[in-house]
Design brief:
The protein is an all-alpha fold. It has nine helices and no strands. 20% of the residues are buried.
């Protein structure tokens, strides 16, 4: 086990030295980051910005669970959200309101509790939860082993012949 750890540390250390120190983007600090990222993750660039802008405008200019729940699903759909995304946004707003996903207290919870709560929301899985932990809550010890970029990086770092598969031992 020690040899494997030492080999990993050596390869990781060389990669980190080449890449330089990680500088995470600043947190928005208001937990609303999950809202704009959630409606349109599969749409890029200007289209995503336009949909997000219409979404914010449709709910009155401020992204809160109460603002989402104050409008009809049809209003959200006219902003450009699909039926599934609309249902997901409403589910997130509902769970934020009932305390299942305490947006104002997520930073106080441990990683697995945050993941457990976020994944109760329709359309939010482990990957989205891990990205939220890393980039919004600043949790530097999260290792998203199922992320393709992470697996591809591991493959390159260790000169493996095929893309690394996340170990079954992760319990997922």
């Amino acid at each position: 086990m020690s040899q494997a750890r030492d080999a990993w540390c050596s390869a990781a250390g060389q990669t980190i030295k080449r890449a330089g120190p990680f500088q995470p983007p600043p947190s928005r600090g208001d937990r609303s980051v999950i809202w704009p990222g959630h409606p349109v993750p599969t749409v890029g660039g200007r289209a995503a910005q336009a949909i997000h802008g219409r979404f914010v405008q449709a709910i009155g200019g401020r992204v809160t669970p109460q603002a989402v729940l104050a409008v009809t699903p049809e209003v959200l759909r006219t902003a450009g959200l699909s039926g599934n995304k609309t249902a997901s946004i409403i589910d997130l707003a509902t769970k934020a309101t009932d305390g299942t996903v305490p947006l104002d207290r997520l930073g106080e919870l441990d990683d697995e509790e945050v993941i457990s709560r976020l994944t109760t929301v329709r359309g939010i899985g482990r990957w989205t939860s891990e990205m939220f932990l890393m980039f919004e809550l600043g949790r530097v010890d999260v290792w998203p082993v199922e992320d393709f970029g992470v697996r591809n990086g591991w493959t390159l770092m260790h000169s493996l012949p095929k893309i690394y598969a996340a170990p079954a031992a992760t319990g997922r």
